[in-house]
UniProtKB/TrEMBL annotation:
<protein>
    <recommendedName>
        <fullName>Adenosylcobinamide kinase</fullName>
        <ecNumber>2.7.1.156</ecNumber>
        <ecNumber>2.7.7.62</ecNumber>
    </recommendedName>
</protein>
<keyword id="KW-0067">ATP-binding</keyword>
<keyword id="KW-0169">Cobalamin biosynthesis</keyword>
<dbReference type="GO" id="GO:0005524">
    <property type="term" value="F:ATP binding"/>
</dbReference>
<comment type="pathway">
    <text>Cofactor biosynthesis; adenosylcobalamin biosynthesis; adenosylcobalamin from cob(II)yrinate a,c-diamide: step 5/7.</text>
</comment>
<comment type="function">
    <text>Catalyzes ATP-dependent phosphorylation of adenosylcobinamide and addition of GMP to adenosylcobinamide phosphate.</text>
</comment>
<comment type="similarity">
    <text>Belongs to the CobU/CobP family.</text>
</comment>
<keyword id="KW-0547">Nucleotide-binding</keyword>
<dbReference type="GO" id="GO:0009236">
    <property type="term" value="P:cobalamin biosynthetic process"/>
</dbReference>
<dbReference type="GO" id="GO:0008820">
    <property type="term" value="F:cobinamide phosphate guanylyltransferase activity"/>
</dbReference>
<feature type="binding site">
    <location>
        <begin position="34"/>
        <end position="36"/>
    </location>
    <ligand>
        <name>GTP</name>
    </ligand>
</feature>
<keyword id="KW-0808">Transferase</keyword>
<keyword id="KW-0418">Kinase</keyword>
<dbReference type="GO" id="GO:0005525">
    <property type="term" value="F:GTP binding"/>
</dbReference>
<feature type="binding site">
    <location>
        <begin position="9"/>
        <end position="16"/>
    </location>
    <ligand>
        <name>GTP</name>
    </ligand>
</feature>
<dbReference type="InterPro" id="IPR027417">
    <property type="entry name" value="P-loop_NTPase"/>
</dbReference>
<comment type="pathway">
    <text>Cofactor biosynthesis; adenosylcobalamin biosynthesis; adenosylcobalamin from cob(II)yrinate a,c-diamide: step 6/7.</text>
</comment>
Length: 185
């Protein structure tokens, strides 16, 4: 199994830049797995996507993978480094799944991560530090992403938190929680 690294933090905290820095340091062929889909009608969204594209070195391969992350990971070669940005967008893309389908999708993802020989970097938004969302879809997103990030963090070699322009290595500074009974694979 390759190295598995999770980079989490708030919006605009520098998560993606830190992940990109780690990918460059890997010395491997970087495959950038973009979970966002372009929307020409949303100018602000397009600007965000363009900013990410402009930061990437030209020798990186970019794959647009809004849904099938597990299959993409499973196809990775050991000499590569996959940078998945972001899990929050991936979860958003799958919010229409019912609970059983989501459980199957997230379980497949977590199982696949543990089998891949390539290095993998996952960028994920840290959610739930504010008010409880007023709408059911917001609560569903928060709960699904929060649970996924916790489960992924439990199987990662390293977990980083990016906050206030600083990177904290939680694997060194923190103590992992025991696996939650309702989150076991």
């Amino acid at each position: 199994m390759g190295k598995v690294i999770l980079i989490t933090g708030a919006a605009r905290s520098g998560k993606s830049e830190w992940a990109e820095s780690l990918a460059k340091q890997s010395g491997k062929q970087v495959i950038y797995v973009a979970t966002a889909t372009e929307n020409p009608a949303d100018i602000e969204w397009q600007k965000r996507i363009l900013a990410h594209q402009q930061r990437r070195p030209q020798n990186w391969t970019t794959l647009a993978v809004p849904i099938e992350i597990s299959a993409t990971l499973a196809d990775a070669k050991p000499h590569s480094c996959l940078l998945v940005d972001s899990l929050g967008t991936w979860v958003t893309n799958l919010l229409d799944q019912d609970e059983i389908s989501w459980q199957n999708t997230s379980t497949e993802f977590l199982e696949t991560v543990q089998l891949v020989a390539a290095d993998m970097l996952f960028v994920a938004e840290e959610v739930g530090w504010g008010v409880v969302p007023a709408y059911p879809i917001g609560r569903l997103f928060r709960d699904r992403l929060g649970s996924l990030v916790r489960q992924l963090g439990a199987i990662c070699d390293t977990v980083y938190l990016v906050a206030g322009g600083h990177v904290l290595n939680l694997s060194v500074l923190g103590t992992p929680l025991p696996k939650a009974i309702d989150e076991e694979l």
